[in-house]
Structures are given as structure tokens and as C-alpha cells.
User: Fold these one by one.
Assistant:
Number 1:
Amino acid sequence: MKIAMISYWSCPLTRLGVLKSGGMNVYILHLVHYLARLGHNVDVYTKTHTGGDENLIKLDKNARIIHLSAIDTDSYTKKVLQYIKKNALSYDIVHAHYYYSGLVGCGLKKTLPVPLVMTFHTLGMMKKLYLGIDDKRRIDFEKKVVSCVDGIIAFTGLEAAELIRYYQAEKNKIFVVPPGVNHHVFKKYSQSYSRNKLKIDKSKRVILFIGRIDPVKKINLLIEAVAKLTKIHPSFMNNFCVFLIGGDIGSREFWHDKEVKKIKYLIGEKNLERCVKFIGSQPYNLLPFYYSAADVVVMPSVYESFSFVVLEALACGSTVLASRVGGMTFLIRDKINGRHFESNDYDSLSSILWELLNDKKQRAFLRKNAIASTRNYCWEKQARKMLSVYKKLL
């Protein structure tokens, strides 16, 4: 099968946690890799990094990334069509990621007589409901894409229900295919070994956040929670550290970002500069060691369609504490393989965080079940499920 992927919003090769790069990049790269391993040809069309068109990059013998420049989705659609015609390419199916790519896909559909599949990754209506961000233009575009495409990939049954309720998507167009995790990379290492490798103080309680520095991630809740713990238990101040992994801390733009400034101010206001550290985006191959080094991995997001961080952390046998929202309610079974706290409630977060930090037996029990709970999420299985969706649409 010949597959064209559209990733207009962000190049999948961008370093994780920098700019717009996050879970979607992980998803696309792994899906492409495993589709290619199963013998299918995949081209990923994405925007250039520099302004002019760049040469394509081969990921392996069956997969490549094609960089094309554009000022908007309409001009990008024309560029893709020109590239296809110039190189005499043909595809069996087009798979778009995020609503901008969906708009490109809808444009391609007018010329290419092949099915169009859509994965939204996040939805504007959910940001409106959970964050109060009312981006009417985005929501209108998403509704346009929903009505245009032949198939929609939802990560969970909850996302499928949201698409039907808020976007009037046709039920028979929606296919639930969760993402996967690379168990060859994300696996358990001993805490002692991991801390030695990362040069982390073995005497400290380590709390870990990984993700984009974005309002939806609610990092401020984590800061408020640990601030409350230091107030109730003054000695805790000298016994813990919070690592915030994400963002390009070497760039001026990072420190001028509105959300970063807000978090940095809160850290200063709570006198937590010695305990809470931005350590920036980290190499992908080091993330399993950070997960393994942590006492607790916290995902305080107010909305997540799925959460690769939670899935990766579970695969590494981490103790995970996540808000009870979205896809994380499918990944975490409270008190079985992880813990939930009530979304947007730092009192709930601080209470359960303190409980976990001081209950070694509970952490060991949760870690034991965490790895097993990810077995059905291996990438090869998910790629085969995706292929079955493609074949149905063909």
C-alpha cells in the first residue's frame, strides 16, 4: 500500500518538547516506522524548517519525509499536488494529522481520488470546555474537516463520543485505534542505575513532569501542590526536587514565552527556585532513565486526548499520578497501575502526591502492574489495526 501522511503543523523530526513538537510527533514517527516495517510505502509531507523547499529525508527503505515550503494551507496543498505530479507519484490513501493538515487533505481530495483519513490529536471544542479558550475559527475548520473526510481515527471511545456530540461526526466514519509505545525503548531500569546515569541526587524525592510548556498541561497545579506540601511539612523543602522536561531552555524565545514566564513567576513567588527546575527538552533515548529515576511522574493536564507521557511512564514501571480527564482515564486504573487526582484541584494533587511519596509499598504495587498494563499498546499491533482501517476505506 502507498500512503501519504500530512503533517503540516509540525515536522515529526523536530526535537520533542520544542516549539510545537509533542506527542503527535512521536505518534507519526512510530506509526510510519511500523507501517514501513510491515512492507508499506509511506511519504510524510511536512513544512520546511528554513523557508525554501528541502530535499527529502529517508527514514528507512520504505519511508521518507518530504519538506515543502508554504505560507498557508492553500499554498501548501498546491505544493503537494505539484510535487506529486512532478515526481509521478500515486497513493492509495491520505492520512492527515491535526486540523491544519486536515484542511490540506480536504484540498487534496478534490484532485486525488483516494480515501482521506483524519487524526485530530486535540480538538478545539475540548479546549473551549476545559480551558475556556474559544477559538471559533479553529472549531469551524474542524467541523469542515469532519464533514469532508472518509474516516476519522479516534484514540479512545471518549474521543469518538466527543466527535459525535460536538462535531456531528457520523458514527460509521469513526474508528478507535489507540496509539502505541515502543517497548524496546521504554522499559524498566533500576532507580539507582538511572540516577547514577543522570547524575541525580539519590537522597532526594524526585517528581517528574514531561511535556510541552503549555497552559493545557497545568504545570502551575504541580507548583501549587508542592508549595502546599512545603508549607505543611517545612522539612520537605530540602528533600525533594521537581524536574520540568520540555522546551528549548537555550533559546531566548523560551524564556519570553507567556506560559513559561507565568510558571517561573509562580516558582519565585513560592520560594521554590532551589527545588523546581526547568531542564528543557531531553534526548528521546534518555527519557526512560528519567521515568525510572523519578519517585512519581505527574501529569496534571486539564485535557489530554490520550497522553503518550503516561503510556511511556507506565511502560517504564513508573509510579504515575495523573488528572482524571480524557485519555488518561483509559490508561490509568486508580490504585491498580497508577493514581488519579481530581482535575484542576491542587489540594487533591498535593494530598495524593504526599501519600505516594511516603508509601513505598504502594509505589511498588503500582509499578508492578504498570508495565503489564501497557502490553496491548505495542506499536506493531496498533499499526496492523490502522492498516485494517485503511483497507476498509479502500
Number 2:
Amino acid sequence: MLTTAVLALGGALAGAIAMLFGHGVWTRIFERWSAPRLARARTALYDAPRYGSRKAVLAGLHTLPRRLQVRVLSELARSPEGPDRDAITGIARDAGLLRNAERMAHSRWWWRRLRGARHLTVFGADEILVLSLLRDPHVAVRVQAAELAANHPTPAVINALLDGLDDPAAGHRFAVQDALLRLGPIAVPPLASCLERGTGTALAGALAVAEGMAEPAFSRAAIRLTDNGDPIVRERAVALIGAIGELDGAEAVTRRLEDAVAAVRTAAARALGFMKHWPAAPAIAGLLRDRSWEVRHAAGLALRDLGSPGLLLLRRSREDDNLFAADMARQVLDLPGTAGART
């Protein structure tokens, strides 16, 4: 019986090795067969848009299998000298690639929907299909749909992306954040509204996106959120105020230097350093005695960023009776680039 099991296992391993070897051989043969065809098609596709010949583009595509048609058209879409998105969509439609991608995007199998979404990211898709893919039950499809949505900045799509900030799957939340950042200024008004009404995970994600944009339109909501009951929200709200850099939020950030959560105190010290808010220097210097190394380190760097007032407090802290404060002050003053620190 043991011998039978060993033989069966050996046979399975041999079969797997044979399949892998066979796949490698087939891939190499296919690449050698397709190389000259790809070269001719690329030449036709890259030259034709320059002269406005859609017929030549389609003729170049039709010499290739469908998966290579998709590859070459994707290359054309990424090329700085290639046609615009509307032209790519038209070429894909005329070649039948757009319809095929849409058909895959409606498949019952998630991996086909994923493949369809990837193709549509190149070819373009209508708003209804984008919204459907953003609500797909499989996270991999939703992640790809977020990338697709970044090319379709309609109000409905942007709102659907904002709804995705509350997705239980972290991968999709990060993809949504990236898509909103790519959308840029057009996403600012709806994102500001989200900060005013958002809660929970969505609010924390919206703050992370807002920090990447650092628009003054977010200031009012950020100041209010520094008093939120969720420490993650407080931390990100403080970081957002620091990124924006307007002194209207300095008082709210200064209050967070006494926050019960170390991460919030750290963010507050960093933000005040970024803002160059020197009146907060004494309060920041008090954090050199904090029990958290991260807080002490952030406070020391913030004091250095404040210039002369901060450096003066760092020098005084070198002689502090508190070993935490004295050690951190010496570390910061010894850092390269701390101008005027040594006296």
C-alpha cells in the first residue's frame, strides 16, 4: 500500500514537471512565432495614428491573435506619441476587442470579469459598467475596477469610489485611495463633503487621500475631526492640517500634544514642525520627556524644524534632569544639518 502511494505521488510529480516543461516549450515556440508579426503590427499601429489611418491600424491588428492584439493596443495606449483615449476606444471597438472585453466583464466567473476589467482599463468603458465592476463580489475585480474608474471621472463614479473607502477588503480600499489621488482636483469637492459626513473606516481613508492632496478646502473638516473619538481619525486629521500648512488649525493641533494616544501626539508634533508654528515650541519641548520614543523623536525633530526657538529649547534640554529629554535633545542636536546646534 505504501509502495502504491509512493508510485502515485511520483507519477503526479512527474506529470506536473512534464506540464511545466511543456508549457515552457510552448511559450517559447509561440513567442518566436509571434515576434515578427508583433514587430510588423507595432510599426503599423505606431505610424498609422500619426497619419490618421484607422484602416491601417485595424489591418495591423488583424494579423495577430486576439491576446496579442490586446497587448499591442495596450502598448499604443501607454505611448506618449500614441492616440488619445477616444481613439483607442474607437480602434478597440472596430477590432471587436471592446465588445469581447465587455462580454468578459459580465461573465459568471470572476477571473474572466477580472480579465475583462483589465482590458477595459485600456479600452475604456461606459459609466454603468464601471459602477457594476466597482460593486463586484470579488475583491480582485473591485481592485481592477478602481484603476479603471480613475479614467472615468464622472460624479457617480467618484461617489462610488468614495463608498469604496469603507470596503472591508484592505486591498480595495488602497486601490480606491490611489484612484482618488490620480483623479486630482476634480475629486476635491466630493472628498471634502465625505470628510464632513463620513464615519469609521471610510473617514480614515478619506483623510489619508486628503493628506495626499493637501487642499485648503479640507481645513474646516480636519480641524473638527481633531476631536473625533477614533484615535486613527484624530491622527490623520492632525497630519492633514500639517500637510495643508495653514495656521488656522495650529491651535487644534497644539491641543493634540496632550492626547492620550501616543500616535496622535507624534502626529501633532510633526505637524507643528511642518507648519513652523514656533509659539508651540514650549509645549513640544515638554514631549521630550514622553514615555514613547516615537513621540520624543518627533518632538525633537519638530523643535529643530522650528529654527532658533526650537534649537534654544533643545540646547537647554541637554542638561535636563529627565534622562529621556536629555538623551533625545543630544541625539537631535548631533544630527547632520542641525545648523547652529553646537555652541
Number 3:
Amino acid sequence: MAGRKKQARKAGAGRRVLVGVGASAGVLLAAAAMATGSAITAAPAHADFEDLLDPIIQPLLSSFADAVSAVDPAAALDVTSWTDSLLSSLGSFDLALPSTDSALAAAATAAEPAASTGPYDLPLTVLEGTEPTVNAAIDGSSTSVPLLVDTGSSGLVIPSTDLGSNFVSQLEALYSLGFPTGISESGYSGGVDYIYLTYNDVPVTYADGLTTNGPVDIEVYSWDPSNFGSLFTNDAFQNFLSGNDVNGILGIGENTAGPGTSPFESFGNVTVDVPGKELIVGGEPVTGTSLSGAPISTDYISIDGGPLQAVSNDVDSGGVTGTIPASLLTSSEYNSSTDLVNPGTTIAVYADKAGTEELYHYTVTAANEPFVVSGSSMDSGVEPFLLGPISMEYTPVGTGTTIFGG
């Protein structure tokens, strides 16, 4: 189904690929040159492409070969010599970078917005019945774009193609953002892995007078792990977002896999209130049942009134219809040919194993069938958010708290 997004993978973990292939490769090659860890303190104002790119390209080569081989062993190539040739041919070019002093100053002053209590009430819309979104303008743009409100990941992620209508304008926009603080890799289990640059001083303007100044993660190269051809088209992230009808992902969770940090951390908490059509930043969280972990906690699930079973639950507003492990279901409760829970099945989730603190319950329909997966963890999907407001607190740091209201 369109827009299947289950959860984020840990930033920098897992498989990596060669950067620089595909129609928009030049954006990554030029931008990545500005993102080498040593560049912040050591890069000259003008630097050779080869010197800047080699520390990034070389560590990715072996992983690229692994990725190619995993899809099509016969297509595994010796890409090292190709890349050396490319870097050598680019060696005569100079890349004008921001001065070291200005880069250091930007890094020193880049920070989250000053602590604020709020609240800021951002209009929230649900697209396709499962995708809560808010609009925001990135880096002073006159146009606001829809962002998927995702408690199941951390960090605002947008594709570089959002920055301009063509390669040149995208590269110019990246350069105007100044010096990135890093380069890393992440992905979403809905079918996309990507490499991104992190910028800590990008204004993002929401509604109700709210503006944050970073961090923002900008995707510069992406691929579908199951599609070898996507290694060369560099459009997997764009296709992924198109399926979700959004221009970016606003990750507002706390103890998630990544890729970054929520832009709202300094405000203390956020409340996703789908019935009230608001994303509330700061202020007082809802009153209700609190669970340690935002969004991941240990809950107890009952299927069709059966016994309560412990499960690690990712309370994920960006998880569409969610997932349930096959180990928690009987053969009559899901369709093994489609791996979907059967309509008519009742799902009830509790905070305690005694079943006295219900968090939410619903009956599966053809519109909200959870996917059946292996393992022992579930993803709530958007369903509990459709039923009532849920707050995510950013304390304690690194863990967070989820509060089910009402």
C-alpha cells in the first residue's frame, strides 16, 4: 500500500554504498566534500576534490560492492579503480568552501532554539487517513510544504531536491546553508536507505509564530535495498515521500533509532492531537497514563479478548497501519498470503499486565489492517493517535515519556 513507513534504522548503521552515481550525484559529491570530519578544523578555503572526497568515498567502496552483490552477485564489480579514476579526474578542480573561521563560528553558534514553554498550536492534517502532517517553510522559503509527523523517528529529514528545481539550484542552496556538521547514513524500513548531511542552523518556520533553527538532515543520495537499479537513479527517497504525499519527515520521537534529534526537544514535549487537528509544541502535556520511553515501551496486548501478552510497542504516528508479530496471533487471526491481520479482529493494548490500564483498543477494518511481521516487536501505527491525544516528553533525556490522554 502507498506510504508504508514502519520505522527508522539507526543512523550510520548497516550497509553503505558508493556515493556519486545517478542524475543528482554531483550534489552529493560537492556537498559531501564540505562534510568531512577534518574539514571543520583543517580544510583550506580552496581544496582539491580528490583530497576532500577520498576520506568519504574509500570507506564506502567495500560496502557498495557488498550491496551490489547482495542484489545481483553477477553484477558485483571492482568499483575501486573506477572511483580512483573519477577522483583523479576531478583533482584539478577547486571547491570554494566557507572559510575555516566562519565554519567554526557557525558550528559554535548552531544550537536548538532557546528553551521555551510554548505552547505553539500547529494545524495538523491527516492525509490518506493514516498520515498526520504539518506544514513548514524550510530555510526562508516562501512556500510551506507538508511534513509527515513521525513519533517513530527523530530528526527533520528533507531531500536535497526540495531545495531547488534543478541540479544547479540545489547545489547553490546546499552551499548557502554553510558548513554541515556531519555526513551519515540511515533509512526507513518502508523501502529506502539514504545518505544525509546535517545542518545545525537552518530556519524552519511553522504556524503560530514558531520557528526553529535546526538541526535539519538533508538527504543527498538514496536507494531501495531491494532494487538494484535504484543505486543509479538516486530517487528512492523521493519515491518514498511521494508515496506518503509529503515533502519530508518530521521525526519527533526521543529514544528512536534516528537519524537525528527532534527539532522540538528544547520545548520539553509535543502532543499529537489528531482529533483536535493540532500538533502542540511545548506547554503542558496531556493528563493520562504515562509510559517510560518515547515512543518505545513495553506494553501488553490482547487479541480478540485473549490473554495479555508482553510486547515492545513502537507508538509510531508515522507507522501507517502498523505491524504485529506473527507470534502474538493465531492462524485464524491473519491472512498468511497477504500477511495482514484479518478485518474484524479486535486489538487492545494495556500499560500493565493485569489489564487495568487500557491505552487504546480498536477493531481491524479493511482500511487499517496491520502488517504481520516476524520478531517480537510491534508498531502501533497511527491508530492510537486517531483515537485521542498522545504526548511525547523529552525527559528523561535519551528515554523520554509517552502519555496517553483521556
